[in-house]
């Protein structure tokens, strides 16, 4: 064996755990779901080829598919900007060098470390319309009680509230790292030029933070389309194990997909839903990446 | 240095070749089913180990299940049961998901406890039919179970499991509250028709400043397991198993859902959302959050298990479910636990002995702890749950035991559809859409019928 071949083999040996894991746990399931999406498949029986029938049913006959799309879009459109804004605000607050700041940083990040199932169950108690803290607080303030998860109107805002609590820690930490990376020299130069605190933040910090905003936006966007645990646990707890909230108001895309695959054993249809979600996310990611050319500023990048 | 890098770099083609090889090897490894040993009975004297998967983990389970298994192993010294009481399959995960994966991979457990009807999994091809074994059985013969309960295990004439229990449904009412309101009530006096139940409920319903403060009875819209019973009470049925047809939008079912909608509209103001804020009408769990437990309602349709699961702070009684204007008499419902043999199990004969034991003699041991009514006709009419005796005394406990046992004779057909989960979810969506005023009764049930029948036909085609 030549030395070159030996080196090559050694290189592959070192990367093989990752390659095998990629092949078995990512590439194979992805390719398989593309194939299964064109079949009727119940896991037990061999898949039977039905062409595009799953997609025809999905787009033309399954009313709940469109409801799930609407619920997910509602969730994404409200939760992503909210999560980004709250994460940025918290990161800005935690960027100050105050006494005990380490404690606050830990405290605000802590909810992200608690399993989503536990956090959701805790919030279900808080939002219980009869005995929950949230309605007790509203009553104390003389405001009417809300149905929260038991109301078709309030169920999605409740879900967004829980997801905010669960999901804000991660983007907050990344924003904090971005803020810490802001060159002091630029801020000092802006101060010398007469910029006040707001102008320094808006004109210097935010433009420098746009690569971080871009990264957080992509990650949060993809995660919001794939929201599952919170919605699944919340609906199971609030309205019985089989329901999806009042009038299916919490039937988000992944919950509908899960029900098709694992509750109704329609794995072919569930795979078709996964393929549609994958394609939608690819398209959305491309759009965001494309738009980033006009609003993301990289230090050292050549002027456009 | 540059040359060295060039020499040591991997060509794109080479990379793809090796990556493709790795992918192919891994894919083949993942797809290859484990070799399934031939299903042959163990030779005389040979020790057989059976695996049993279950979703149980409560303290009662930890105490009682080993007794049942010990009893079985004593009767069959050549069979040993391997099991965990961790609330899921060995290694964790969802019991059914893992079971289906293991069947597909060719290495399923020998036996499993199911909380969804075997008819569904039988239609999927996931379970072993046991008719031949039942024909030769000592205890679990085809006619030894309540007919409608055993039907939950059947699909296209074959039996895919055994029911261990059939916890019954009844009307529970708070006798203390009735007495306080000057309407003393016994089982014999309890309404037998929906019209009389409605009149009684109206008598018990109170308001303060126009706001509801207490109600008699809330139609059990979120107890989907009782929908087939409500349908039968009005002379209808949801699924006609004999002809494999759904009849969701039959006149009887339209009448049933219409009666619930008008009841909620006329008696309780019709604001479905507000009613849901007012009380937890359906679930009895958690107990202190239940409207019936809190005295917010005085009558509730529920399962026999609440007799020991809940410590009611009042005296209560049970009565048969009243029937509707198109019905001819009462009907009851049941919620079983099932035992089955996943397809591909290695010891089907021994596995049958185990599930037979659990669903017959073994369940008598279980029933002494929890009032999950036995589905086996051979169960003693005199074995009573100790926890129920502790609560209500031996004589009344025995009377309640026989009430629920007798109710299985007039149980509605239920849990017998190959698409029970889909139908149940779709029908619940339809009913809540009506009560939430999103659809009319006719629209909601017509749509549900079309969806459910289409799903059934798809299942029939692929079976």
Summarize the structure.
In chain A, 73% of the residues lie in helices and 1% in strands. Chain A is mainly α and 304 residues long.
What layout of secondary structure does this protein have?
The complex is a heterodimer of chains A (304) and B (463).
Chain A (H helix, E strand, L loop, with lengths): L2 H34 L2 E2 L7 E2 L3 H9 L1 H32 L6 H13 L2 H11 L6 H8 L14 H13 L1 H12 L3 H9 L4 H29 L3 H11 L13 H11 L3 H29 L9
Antiparallel strand pairs in A: 1-2
Helix pairs in contact in A: 1-13, 3-7, 3-8, 3-10, 3-12, 4-8, 5-11, 8-10, 9-10, 10-13, 12-13
Chain B lengths: L1 H7 L3 H20 L16 E6 L5 H17 L3 E5 L11 H11 L5 E4 L3 H7 L6 H5 L11 H4 L3 E2 L2 E2 L2 E2 L3 E8 H6 L13 H11 L1 E3 L2 E7 L9 H7 L5 E2 L4 E2 L4 H18 L3 H7 L18 E7 L2 H4 L6 E4 L14 E2 L2 E3 L7 H12 L1 H7 L18 H7 L1 H14 L12 H16 L5 H22 L1
Parallel strand pairs in B: 1-2, 1-3, 9-12
Antiparallel strand pairs in B: 3-15, 4-5, 6-15, 7-12, 7-13, 7-14, 8-9, 10-11
Helix pairs in contact in B: 3-15, 16-17, 18-19
Q: Features of this protein?
A:
heterodimer; A: 304 residues; mainly alpha; MetI-like fold; two-stranded antiparallel sheet; 2 strands; globular; B: 463 residues; alpha+beta; D-Maltodextrin-Binding Protein, domain 2; 2 domains; 6-stranded mixed beta sheet; 5-stranded mixed beta sheet; 19 helices; 15 strands; disordered N terminus
Account of the 3D structure:
Chain A has 304 residues and is mostly helical. Chain A has 13 helices and 2 strands. In chain A, a hairpin with a 7-residue loop joins strand 1 (39-40) and strand 2 (48-49). The longest helix of chain A has 34 residues, at 3-36. Chain A is globular and about 70 Å long. The N and C termini of chain A lie far apart (51 Å). By secondary structure, chain B is an alpha+beta fold. Chain B has 2 domains: 48-166 and 336-379, 3-Layer(aba) Sandwich (D-Maltodextrin-Binding Protein, domain 2), CATH 3.40.190.10; 168-334 and 414-462, Periplasmic binding protein-like II (D-Maltodextrin-Binding Protein, domain 2). In chain B, strands 7, 8, 9, 12, 13 and 14 form a 6-stranded mixed sheet that branches. Chain B has a 5-stranded mixed sheet with strand order 2-1-3-15-6, covered by helices on one side. In chain B, helix 3 (59-75) runs antiparallel to helix 15 (361-367), helix 16 crosses helix 17 and helix 18 runs antiparallel to helix 19. The termini of chain B are far apart. The chains are: A mainly alpha (304), B alpha+beta (463). At the A-B interface, helix 1 and helix 12 of A face helix 2, helix 4, helix 12, helix 18 and helix 19 of B.
């Amino acid at each position: 064996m030549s030395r070159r071949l030996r080196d090559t083999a050694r290189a592959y040996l070192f990367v093989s755990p990752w390659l095998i894991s990629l092949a078995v746990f990512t590439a194979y399931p992805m390719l398989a779901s593309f194939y299964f999406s064109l079949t009727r498949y119940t896991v037990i029986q061999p898949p039977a080829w039905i062409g595009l029938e799953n997609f025809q049913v999905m787009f033309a006959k399954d009313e709940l598919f469109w409801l799930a799309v609407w619920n997910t879009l509602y969730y994404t459109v409200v939760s992503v900007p909210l999560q980004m804004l709250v994460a940025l605000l918290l990161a800005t607050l935690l960027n100050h060098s105050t006494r005990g700041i380490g404690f606050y940083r830990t405290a605000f990040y802590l909810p992200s470390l608690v399993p989503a199932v536990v956090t959701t169950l805790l919030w279900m108690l808080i939002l219980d319309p009869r005995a929950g803290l949230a309605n007790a607080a509203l009553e104390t303030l003389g405001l009417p009680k809300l149905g929260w998860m038991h109301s078709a109107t309030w169920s999605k805002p409740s879900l967004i509230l829980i997801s905010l609590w669960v999901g804000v820690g991660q983007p907050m930490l990344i924003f904090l790292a971005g803020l810490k990376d802001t060159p002091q020299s630029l801020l000092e130069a802006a101060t010398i030029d007469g910029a006040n605190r707001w102008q320094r933040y808006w004109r210097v910090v935010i433009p420098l933070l746009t690569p971080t905003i871009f990264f957080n936006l992509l990650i949060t966007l993809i995660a919001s389309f794939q929201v599952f645990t919170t919605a699944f646990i919340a609906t199971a707890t609030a309205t019985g194990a089989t329901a999806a909230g009042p009038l299916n108001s919490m039937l988000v895309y992944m919950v509908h997909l899960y029900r098709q695959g694992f509750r109704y054993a329609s794995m072919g249809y569930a795979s078709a839903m996964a393929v549609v979600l994958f394609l939608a996310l690819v398209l959305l990611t491309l759009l965001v990446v494309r738009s980033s050319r006009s609003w993301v500023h990289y230090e050292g990048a050549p002027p456009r | 240095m540059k040359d060295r890098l060039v020499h040591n770099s991997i060509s794109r083609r080479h990379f793809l070749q090796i990556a493709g090889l790795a992918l192919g090897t891994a894919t083949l490894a993942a797809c290859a089913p484990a070799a399934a040993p031939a299903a042959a009975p163990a030779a005389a004297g040979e020790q057989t180990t059976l695996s049993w998967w279950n979703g149980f983990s409560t303290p009662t389970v930890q105490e009682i299940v080993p007794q049942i298994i010990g009893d079985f192993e004593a009767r069959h010294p050549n069979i040993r049961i391997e099991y965990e009481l961790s609330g899921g399959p060995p290694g964790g995960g969802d019991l059914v998901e893992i079971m289906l994966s293991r069947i597909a991979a060719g290495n399923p457990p020998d036996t499993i406890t199911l909380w969804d009807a075997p008819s569904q999994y039988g239609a999927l091809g996931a379970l072993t039919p046991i008719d031949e074994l039942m024909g030769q059985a000592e205890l679990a013969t085809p006619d030894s179970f309540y007919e409608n309960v055993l039907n939950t295990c059947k699909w296209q004439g074959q039996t895919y499991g055994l029911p261990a229990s059939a916890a019954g449904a009844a009307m529970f009412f708070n006798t203390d509250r009735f007495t306080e309101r000057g309407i003393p009530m016994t089982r014999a006096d309890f309404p037998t028709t929906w019209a009389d139940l409605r009149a009684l409920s109206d008598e018990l319903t109170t308001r303060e400043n126009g706001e509801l403060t207490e109600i008699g009875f809330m139609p059990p819209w979120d107890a989907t397991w009782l929908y087939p019973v409500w349908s039968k009470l009005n002379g209808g049925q949801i699924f006609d198993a004999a002809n494999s047809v759904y009849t969701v939008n039959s006149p009887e079912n339209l009448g049933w859902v219409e009666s619930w909608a008008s009841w909620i509209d006329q008696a309780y103001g019709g604001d479905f959302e507000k009613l849901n804020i007012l009380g937890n009408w359906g679930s009895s769990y958690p107990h202190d959050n239940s409207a019936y437990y809190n005295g917010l309602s005085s009558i509730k349709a529920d399962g026999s298990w609440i007799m020991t699961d809940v410590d009611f702070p009042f005296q209560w009684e049970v009565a048969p479910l009243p029937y509707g204007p198109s019905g001819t008499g009462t009907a009851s419902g049941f919620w079983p636990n099932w035992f089955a043999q996943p397809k591909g199990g290695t010891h089907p004969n021994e596995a049958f002995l185990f599930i037979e034991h659990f669903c017959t003699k073994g369940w008598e041991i279980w029933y002494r702890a929890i009032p999950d009514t036995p589905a086996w006709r051979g169960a003693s009419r005199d074995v009573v749950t100790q926890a129920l005796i502790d609560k209500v005394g031996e004589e009344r406990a025995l009377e309640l035991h026989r009430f629920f046992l007798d109710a299985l004779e007039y149980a509605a057909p239920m849990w017998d559809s190959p698409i029970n989960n889909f139908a149940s979810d779709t029908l619940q969506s339809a009913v809540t859409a009506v009560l939430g005023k999103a659809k009319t009764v006719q629209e909601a049930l017509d749509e549900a019928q079309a969806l459910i029948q289409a799903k059934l036909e798809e299942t029939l085609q692929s079976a």
